Structure formats: structure tokens, C-alpha cells
Amino acid sequence: MATDSDKDLQFRDPDTAEELTERLEELMDDIGEPVDVMHVCGSHEQAIAKFGLRSLLPDGLSVRMGPGCPVCVTNMPEVDEAVALAEDGKVVATYGDMFRVPGTARSLEDAKADGADVRVVYSASEAADIAAENPGEEVVFFATGFETTAAPTAAVLSDDPPENFSVLSAHKYVPPAMEVVAEMPDTNIDGFLAAGHAATITGYGLFEEFVADYDIPVVVGGFEPLDVLLGLERLLEYVRDGEAGLENAYPRAVSEEGNVQARDTMWDVFETESGEWRGIAEIPAANLALREEYAASDARERFDIDPDVGGEDPLTEQCICGDIMAGKADPDGCDLFGEECTPQNPVGACMVSSEGTCKIWYEYGGQPDL
Amino acid sequence: MCLAIPGEVVEIDGMEARAEFWDVEKTVRLDIVGETVEEGDYILNHAGFAIRKLPDDQVEETIEIYEAFLEGDEDEALEEIGAEGGDLGIERGPSTPGPMGKPDPELDPMADREETSDGD
Ligand code: SF4
Ligand code: SF4
Known about the structure:
The complex is a heterodimer of chains A (about 375) and B (about 120). By secondary structure, chain A is α/β, with parallel strands linked by helices.
């Protein structure tokens, strides 16, 4: 049964924090074996790293980062498509963190250095504005992100955008990816801490089926340190009781039904299709493609995109982003971490985005809390 | 690509609102907020769109939480909404996702923090 946590969080209250960590210890004692929990949200990893939460956790409780960063899971061929459009003279607008994400051969940054017109925008509507202001140009919005950015992209497309505006969708939908990770034989996840802000849109009720199908507890958590601790405490209680429950530990932002209007707008414009998530797997129904009604605004329909695909880069071959996002490895398990691969010179996508695990670990001192 | 930022709506013109985030005004679209928004309401802005109206009784707590989470990284949050100022060169680009801070060895989240950082 899905429920709202009724705990009232006295924000940043040291007593509550202590109480919660003691509860975690107790629960781990009761459980008596190692527990692996996965969060699916870059902001969770930031909170955990920034506030040193791993050092507060009892032995045997491991909190892993899953495919929770949309920049990291954008597949290289998708970046290649955007680069090809830019090199072909289109204006390509995208969110700032996509700018340096490497494709197989090049990044948008490389294309820009060679004279392509690549713009950084903060919203899909800004990209549409660029199109309105430049009627002579084709403006393509390279759209990335989960539900929270897909709904805005959809809103712009359904609001009669300029004719010279189109969207190259690399939007992704999280729940099917959680299923794939839950099914991986070598990733033993005992519970999921689901992403708070994505759930603002989808509502936490969405996970009910997942919980039932995979017999795994899911708790939706916020990104404040106490939110994270509370989410873990709720999860461990389910693990101890051998129960697969669903709970909302972030009622400040998340409701059971979510933002219905945003969701309706999103599904009016997008449909799911199977697609590759970088380094993880081909995931059924986890990519968001434009529906046929929006073909005129679909960059893939509109242009003959022929990406210049690079050869195998020996460095990218060594990148273990995929394993990290599947919860099988940590960044310090990568030979390139902090040496060949740094935020200034990223090899994999996890080192680019501020929600990428490698970048977060790098920023907070290599191996936070160890 | 996820941190939604709270701001106060100061002016509404159809589906477009002006909202204030830490003294910076930005345009926010109201197309998908799913609720009636009025001037004076607080919304969560994500990628230029309001995705939720904050219930009145949660505004204060929510803002407080954000300020503490950002702790001196308000610039990053402002970058996220495309506010001018700071180093917004394309080399760095706006960080669509969450805020990033420099490592702070003294940082103890659980300590009762008296001082409030107002960024710089
Ligand atoms: S350190 Fe770099 S190369 Fe290694 S997994 Fe992370 S992003 Fe990939
Ligand atoms: S809520 Fe935001 S940070 Fe978390 S996974 Fe979703 S997009 Fe990323």
C-alpha cells in the first residue's frame, strides 16, 4: 500500500539526524546482512557526497547511484546526431551540461570550436525564442532529461512553435530503467530511493506496479540530508520486514498523483520507444520519441541526419560509466578516474554533468567519506 | 537536470510569469503547473517552467531548506535558472542539474548552523 510518511522533519535538526542514524544501526542489526540500496537521482548523490552522509551509515549498508543522471545516460550516437546537425549548419540549442558530453567522435563543444552555431539555453522555450528571432535559420533543440524536462519540451511543442524550430529528443523515462537494473543478475538491489523531483511530475503512485512486480520497496526521497536519511530508514524498515512497500518520504514536493497536467502534456507529445542508455543496456520503453502528430517538429523526421561516427577510442573503452550507473562499480574503480579523466577533460559522461557520479566524487575529494 | 528552484511570482501575463529567485527576476512559463497561480504564490521552477505551486504553509520551510542545501552556492542555483552574473561563459555553461559546491572540510550538515551564508 502506498503511503505518505507522516514524519515531520525538523529541518537540519542534529537530534533527528542522530536518532535516524541510530535507527539505521538498529535496523541493520536486525537485518543481520549487508543491504544494497540504490538511489536514482543526481541530487541525492550530491547531498550524500556534500554532507558526508556515507560516513554516517552503518557498516553493511551500501548506497549506490543508479542511472539517475539524464546527461550520463544520453547515448553517444544521440550526441553524434546533435553534432552532425550543428556541423550541417543548423543552430543547435541545448542545456549547458550537454555541451561537453563526448559523442563517439566529437562533442558539441568541438563543433562550436570549428564554427558551428551551438547555443546554451535554460529552457525549451528559450530555444523556441531563438527560432522566432532567426526565421532564416533552422533551430534544433537537443532535448535531454527525464520527466521534469520532457514535460516542458512537450509544452513548447504543443504551443504552436515557430516553423523553423524542431526537437532532437533524447528525453528518457526512468521507471523502465529501474526495472532493468532490478533485473540485472549481478546487481542485488534491496530497495530504491526514487527521485524526488521527477516524482513531482509523475506522482509516487506510479511506482506501485514496480513494487508489486519486482517485490522491491521504493521510497521517494527529497535531497536534503535528513530527507535522505529518512528515506533510508523507511527503506530499511521494509527490508527488515521482508515487505515490498511504497512510501513517499518527500510530501513537501510529491503527491500520489503528481502533476497531472504536466504528465498529460508530456504523453500528448511523446511516446515511449526502446533505446540504448549509455553503457547500461537497450531499455524497452525508456526513450521518449515525438508522436507522429509532431513529425513536422521532429528533427529526425525533418533532416537526414548522418552522424560522423568516430572509431573506437581506447580511452572510452576503459570508461566504466555503465557499470557505475548500474550500481556495479564506483568511480574509484575506474583506472582513468582523476588521471586521464577529469571534469576539465572528461572521458565519460559521468565526469561532465554536475549530477554525474564521477564528477561529484571528483569535486568532493575523490572518494567522499572513505 | 533536476533541481527545481523555488521563486515568488511577482507578475503574470497569460502563460508567462515573472518570478523572483533570490532577488533575481526571471520569466517562468505556467503552461504545465497544473494549478491556478496568482501573484504572490511560490512556484518550483524547473527548466523555465513552473512544475508545482508550493502550498502556502510549506513556502517558508521549503525556501529554508533550499538555502541550506545550497549553502553559499546560490550562484549555481541562479545559473540554473539562467540568471545573469557570475561566470556564465559557454565554456562552463549553465549547469542544468543541481548545485555544485566546492568541498568544504568543515561542513557538518548536522551541526546547528547559526550563520546564514548569503553567497557572494
Ligand atoms: S572516471 Fe571517467 S572514464 Fe572512468 S567511469 Fe568515470 S567518466 Fe568514465
Ligand atoms: S530528480 Fe532531477 S536530479 Fe534527480 S534524477 Fe530526476 S532529473 Fe536527475
